[in-house]
Design brief:
The protein has a single domain, classed as Alpha-Beta Plaits (2-Layer Sandwich), CATH 3.30.70. The chain is 41% helix and 34% strand. It is built from three helices and four strands. Helix 1 packs antiparallel against helix 3.
């Protein structure tokens, strides 16, 4: 069964949106696409239309990752936490750290895709 991961977040008020989009498009997505088991990465943008609350009138982004299995994603997480730190793993951690400098209200959703 495939696994889809969805990260939904808004930008911090002082974040440079152009720099952030460049980080996602030129660093995050290409690196993740190289990971064995990662089938697809998408970057989505939407204008949140709530009139009140923490995301009122904010630029809201989402990234989606499609993995060939839950096992592939679990293996990646274990290597990132405990395994040998290859240059790609180190680079991935650095990208995620920079991502958090721009983003606010990050929500992570995972879903298993049942195929018949």
């Amino acid at each position: 069964m495939k696994l889809r991961i969805i990260n939904i977040f808004s930008l911090k008020d002082d974040a440079n949106e152009e720099e952030f989009v460049k980080l996602l498009a030129t660093e995050y997505a290409p690196l993740w696409r190289k990971i064995p088991g990662c089938l697809k990465v998408e970057i989505l943008k939407n204008r949140w239309m709530h009139k009140s609350g923490p995301l009122a009138s904010k630029n809201v982004y989402a990234t989606t990752e499609l993995w060939d299995s839950e096992e592939s994603m679990s293996n990646l997480m274990q290597i990132a936490a405990e395994g040998p730190q290859s240059e790609d793993v180190k680079r991935g951690k650095e990208i995620l750290s920079r991502w958090h400098q721009y983003a606010d209200h990050i929500n992570l959703h995972t879903s298993v895709i049942h195929e018949e």
